[in-house]
Amino acid sequence: MEKYSKCMVRIHWIHAALITFVLLSGGLILSEMPNNTDKIGSLKIHILLGLLITVITFVRLFKASKHPEMKPLEVGTGREQIIKWNHRLIYLVLIIVGLSGVIAANTSGLGDIVFFGKEAALYADATSFSKLAGGVHAVATKLLMFLIVMHVAGIVSYMLKIKENVLKRMWF
Ligand code: HEM
Ligand code: HEM
């Protein structure tokens, strides 16, 4: 079976673990915390990991552009296109989430508060951000969750139907 290079496999799984952690902790914990100074530690971790994910996204896109083209899975032209667009949209939405996060944090002065000890009240609510960037960040993270669920469901359904362990393509 054709396989992704070791480097692409390593990046895929490190990226997947970080994204899952930041999506779940962001959506379930961070967004539920009251906006007081106790939140600064969690915001620091969120922002650092979010920036790391965004850097990895660009490295991964660069590596993918050098990677020999993989033969698509034999699923029929319709599903082949869905898989191709699912992968492209995951990359695109990851960039949107990262950039909107940076803009949201900058417009609410979070950088100085979280990293440089500036003593100021944390934003009162999401409206203290650039509303557009904060809104885009929240909506894009939901879209990312949907794309990832679709990605994993697609792989599981392929394995059940075709009875072939497609995970080997993304393993060492
Ligand atoms: C946060 C979670 C995840 C993200 C963001 C993600 C993203 C991606 C992307 C973008 C690709 C396409 C790689 C490329 O061609 O550049 C891919 C491929 C793949 N992923 Fe994931 N993935 C995630 C989780 C998972 C999980 C949990 C599984 C296992 C069930 C999985 C299994 C695979 C496999 C087998 C491929 C290769 C598919 C093929 O050969 O066409 N991924 N993933
Ligand atoms: C690319 C990876 C990232 C993911 C997956 C992610 C995910 C999330 C999620 C799920 C939320 C909760 C949204 C909601 O309210 O429903 C959130 C909130 C937030 N994120 Fe991110 N984020 C990422 C990167 C970043 C970056 C790079 C920054 C800043 C530089 C950032 C700053 C924020 C801020 C300020 C909030 C609002 C926290 C609050 O509710 O008070 N994020 N993020």
Describe the structure.
The chain is mostly helical and 172 residues long. It has one domain (6-170). It is 70% helix and 0% strand. The chain has helices at 6-29, 40-66, 77-107, 110-115, 131-162. α1 runs antiparallel to α2 (40-66) and α3 packs antiparallel against α5 (131-162). It starts with 5 loop residues before the first helix and ends in a 10-residue tail after the last helix. Bound molecules: protoporphyrin IX containing FE (HEM) (2 copies).
Give the overall pLDDT as a whole number: 92
The class by helix and strand makeup works out as mainly alpha
- Note the run of SSEs as H and E: HHHHH
Q: Any idea how many domains?
A: 1
C-alpha end-to-end distance: 12 Å
Q: How many DSSP helices?
A: 5
Radius of gyration: 19 Å
- Provide the low-confidence segments as ranges: none
Main β sheet profile = none
What best-fitting shape do the alpha-carbon axes yield?
elongated
Strand content is: under 5%
User: What would you call the quaternary organization?
Assistant: single chain
Helix content: 55-70%
- Give the beta-strand count: 0
